Amino acid sequence: MNRDLAFVSLPEPGAMGGAASFPSESEAMDAYSRVVTGVAEAVSPSVVRIQVESKRGREGGGSGFVFTPDGFILTNRHVVHGAEKIKVSTLESGEYKAHLVGEDPDTDLALVRIDAPGLHAVRLGESRKIRVGQLVVAIGNPYGFQYSVTAGVVSALGRSLRSESGRLIDDVIQTDAALNPGNSGGPLVNASGEVIGVNTATILPAQGLCFAISIGTAQFIASKLIREGVVRRSYIGVQAQTASLNRIIARHYDLAHATGALVLGTEPGSPAEKAGLQEGDLIVALDQEPVEGVDVLHRFLNEERIGKTTRLTVLRGSKRLEFTLAPRTRES
């Protein structure tokens, strides 16, 4: 839809036998503006401003939104991580002290809770219904300017972002709805007023490259944090990076890919060290499933593998070796 302003010539006063006739504000507002206005009015009461103070007295903040009527608020981990004090301001109910329920460094999501009356929880959309090109609205508190609204479209789907923990955040939404520091943790909303993402990152100095974690991922993480306060994943204790291997060796061992997860080191006492993995080993399979790189390895190391006997296929030089280990619990 063309959002450029249309300039029209207005009749001179008296040219049509009377005073100039201007359209009313409601008549001038086009469909696009009505959608953005309606979404902002419907969702803003559920958006909150988060202010944090660290142990060193440093202040910061961001945005969030009411996830459930009983006070659970979803935001980004980097907004509240390391905070000594957390304050949450709502549009209608005022300011409240919040406590951290849990955080997940692998998805940059966190959950805080406040005890406040009359909270309005957002309506949640469905990740599978998101389409490239659809209208989206972002609401947040950039640079402390509360309840700022920007609009744009979904630019792409299925993007990935690297989290602070080193894992990839999958199923990320790319949008050109402008985001700035302080928008982090706020909602990305569709034209029906449903939250479809958690605004999380921009790429600077590029313009129009903004990202949101999909609501499907956010719901899964939030449910884990509400029940347990942590998100559990399995852990073998290696530092690794994606690396290529000699194609002749890959063909010799009939490997599906000529890449793997190169071990840069093992942590003392970890399952990997105890099993005998060494720096320079290249992990190419886990339980006979191809490991194309470190991101695939991370994806395989989920909660279901905790404590289960797992077989790693490793290339050490030109030799193919098999290692057996049991991944341990890794908590956020």
What are the key terms here?
332 residues, Thrombin, subunit H, Pdz3 Domain, 3 domains, 6-stranded antiparallel beta barrel, 6-stranded antiparallel β-barrel, disordered N terminus
Using the coordinates above, name the CATH class of the largest domain: Mainly Beta
Reading side by side through the largest sheet, how are the strands ordered?
1-2-3-6-5-4
CATH topology call of the largest domain: Thrombin, subunit H
Determine Rg (CA atoms, Å). 25 Å
Order of helices and strands: HHEEEHEEEEEEEEEEHEEHEHEEHEEE
Strand content: 35-45%
Low-confidence stretches are 1-16
* Average of the residue pLDDT scores: 88
CATH homologous superfamily descriptor of the largest domain:
Trypsin-like serine proteases
Number of strands: 21
CATH architecture assignment name of the largest domain: Beta Barrel
Please state the structural category: alpha+beta
Number of alpha- plus pi-helical segments: 7
Distance between termini? 43 Å
Overall number of structural domains: 3
Globally, the shape reads: elongated
Helix percent reads 10-25%
Short structural summary:
The relative contact order is 0.11.
Describe this structure in words.
The protein is an alpha+beta fold. The chain is 16% helix and 42% strand. It contains seven helices and 21 strands. It has a six-stranded antiparallel beta barrel. The chain has a six-stranded antiparallel barrel with strand order 8-9-10-13-12-11. Strands 15, 16, 17, 18, 19 and 20 form a six-stranded antiparallel sheet that branches. Strand 19 (310-316) and strand 20 form a beta hairpin. The two termini are 43 Å apart. Mean pLDDT is 88; it is low at 1-16.
